[in-house]
C-alpha cells in the first residue's frame, strides 16, 4: 500500500529539551490521521516504551482513537524509524530505533528523515526521565506553523446525573493531565492511607497498582467504548461494565486511588438508567481519566530499582550455519 502524503504536517515539540520534529501525515489510516489533526493542538506527558525498545508514546486527548478502525496495519518492528502511529490504547507513538515487540500498529505518517537525529536525542532524554530522573517531560503536538496550546474535549450526556459525573471527570482529568496526581505521588512516596503493603513495604503496592491501572483503561473502558460503538446490546454493555471495572477499581482505591474508586461507584450507579449515547460518553471520559493515571504511574514507578538485573545474552555458537 502506498504512503501518499496528505499535505498536512504536524510538529511534535519537547519544550524542555528544545527539540522539535516535523512529521508528514499520509493516507494509510486516513480516519486516524483526521481524528488527530482535528484534536490539535494539545500537550501530554511524554512516555517511553519500557519493554518494546526504542519507542516514544503519550496519551492523546482524542476520544475517537479508542474505537476508530485502522484500514492498514504493520509490524512496528519492520517499518522505518520515524514512523508515527495512532492506537486504540489512545496513544500517539513514534518509533525511533530497534523494536522487539511483535505488535501490529497503525501508521499515520513519518518524521522527516533530516530530523531523525533530533528524534533519537529526544528518545534518549525521555528514557532517562522515565527510568532515572523522574523529571516530567511534556510533549506538544500542533499543526506545523500554527500556535501551540492545549485542550481536553468535554462530552455531554443527556442524563443530568451522568453529565455531572462527566463534568467532574473532565475537571479532574484537566487537573492531573500535566501535573502528577496527588494520590499517585503520595503512593510513590510511601503515603498509603489504607496501609496496603505487607510489613510496611511500598514496592509491591506500586507494582500491583500499575498492573491493574493499565488494563482498566486500555482493555476495560476502551473495550466498553468499542463494544458500544459496535452495537452490543445495552443490557450486555451494562453487565460487561460491572464485570470488568468494579473489582479492579475497588482494589485500586484500597491501594490509594480513592478518587478513581469514587468515580467508578458513580459510574456504576448510572448504568441502569442511561442510554447508549450517555454510556458511550461517560465511558470515554473514564477511559481518558484512567489512561492519564496509567501514564503517570508508569512515569513515577521506580524502574531503576531493578537496574542490577540485566538480560543474559547467550554467546553465538562459533561456526553456526
TrEMBL record:
InterPro entries: Cucumopine_C. It comes from the Bacteria. Pfam families: Cucumopine_C. This is Cucumopine synthase C-terminal helical bundle domain-containing protein. Residues 163-300 form the Cucumopine synthase C-terminal helical bundle domain. It comes from Kitasatospora cystarginea.
Amino acid at each position: 500500500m502506498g504512503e501518499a502524503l496528505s499535505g498536512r504536517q504536524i510538529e511534535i515539540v519537547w519544550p524542555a529539551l528544545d527539540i522539535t520534529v516535523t512529521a508528514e501525515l499520509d493516507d494509510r489510516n486516513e480516519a486516524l490521521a483526521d481524528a488527530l489533526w482535528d484534536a490539535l493542538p494539545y500537550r501530554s506527558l511524554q512516555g517511553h516504551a519500557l519493554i518494546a525498545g526504542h519507542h516514544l508514546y503519550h496519551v492523546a486527548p482524542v476520544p475517537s482513537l479508542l474505537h476508530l478502525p485502522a484500514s492498514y496495519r504493520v509490524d512496528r518492528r519492520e517499518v522505518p524509524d520515524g514512523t508515527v502511529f495512532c492506537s486504540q490504547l489512545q496513544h500517539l507513538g513514534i518509533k525511533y530505533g530497534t523494536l522487539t515487540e511483535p505488535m501490529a500498529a497503525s501508521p499515520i505518517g513519518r518524521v522527516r528523515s533530516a530530523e531523525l537525529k533530533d528524534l533519537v536525542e529526544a528518545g534518549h532524554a525521555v528514557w532517562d526521565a522515565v527510568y532515572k530522573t523522574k523529571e516530567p517531560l511534556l510533549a506538544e503536538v500542533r499543526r506545523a506553523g500554527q500556535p501551540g496550546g492545549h485542550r481536553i474535549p468535554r462530552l455531554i450526556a443527556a442524563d443530568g446525573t451522568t453529565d455531572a459525573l462527566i463534568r467532574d471527570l473532565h475537571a479532574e482529568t484537566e487537573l492531573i493531565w500535566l501535573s502528577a496526581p496527588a494520590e499517585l505521588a503520595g503512593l510513590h512516596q510511601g503515603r498509603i492511607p489504607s496501609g496496603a503493603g505487607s510489613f510496611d513495604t511500598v514496592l509491591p503496592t506500586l507494582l500491583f497498582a500499575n498492573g491493574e491501572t493499565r488494563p482498566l483503561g486500555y482493555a476495560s473502558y476502551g473495550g466498553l467504548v468499542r463494544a458500544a460503538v459496535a452495537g452490543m446490546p445495552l443490557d450486555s454493555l451494562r453487565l460487561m461494565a460491572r464485570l470488568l471495572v468494579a473489582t479492579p477499581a475497588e482494589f485500586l482505591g484500597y491501594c490509594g486511588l480513592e478518587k478513581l474508586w469514587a468515580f467508578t461507584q458513580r459510574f456504576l450507579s448510572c448504568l441502569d438508567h442511561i442510554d447508549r449515547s450517555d454510556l458511550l460518553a461517560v465511558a470515554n471520559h473514564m477511559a481518558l481519566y484512567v489512561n492519564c493515571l496509567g501514564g503517570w504511574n508508569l512515569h513515577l514507578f521506580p524502574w531503576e530499582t531493578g537496574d542490577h538485573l540485566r538480560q543474559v545474552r547467550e554467546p553465538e555458537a562459533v561456526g553456526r550455519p
